[in-house]
Amino acid sequence: MIKRPKHLIIPDAHAIPELDNDRFEALGNLIVEERPDVVICIGDGADMASLSSFDKGTRGYEGRRYQRDVDSFIDAQDRMFAPIKADNRKRHQSYNPRLVYTLGNHEYRIEKLINAEPGLYGKVGVQDLKLEEHGWEVYPFLQPVVIDGIAYAHYFASGVAGRPISGENIGKTLCVKLHQSAVQGHSHIYDHSERAIISGHKIFGLSCGCFTHPKYVADWNRAFVQMWWRGIVILDDLDSEGYYDQIKTITLRKMMRDFI
Known about the structure:
single chain, alpha/beta, 6-stranded mixed beta sheet, 22% strand
């Protein structure tokens, strides 16, 4: 039997120092069990609240520190990779999936800081997050990467203004606008839609939810956080032309029950 590719997608995780990173340990254990060929982090793994302009100057902003944000994200990665490293020590053949990271707008806050404060160039940067050191292939914010016929990006822009594809039917809009299979994060909403192109081949659009801590609630999201879907998505038995024979969603709630 020919083994066809399997992708595991980690949606927006938003690691922050105020909340624990236990869910990343569960994620690492799940990866060991599922053994995907490719792990894609869709971006916003690091929240970087210290660089937020949304509530700067308010009481809620007080006490935020850049290094604490960075350290929280590095801890999240360490927690995720620890089960994989432990499992590899038991085996003759190591498991080393391809790791793909598409930077999100929250990681892009670091670049915006450097652009606004050129004197910080060389002193801070996305390299502080140690993505390459953990083995990730890193793709710039909004630069899609196509893997097995599926386009991945933190989000895809629509129209000349470059706004994120959003709304109640994100999956459908991705199909209609891009004319190929595509996966994005950003909205924290789960939405999936499929279409057949003129050749008869199937394409799909997927907004993959989020992987945030259940207590990740702040002034900016309080009104709509109940709409978010938390978990990970697995696309299995891929045909390398942008379609799968199995899609599986696993909620964060189940992961915390079964993989800790």
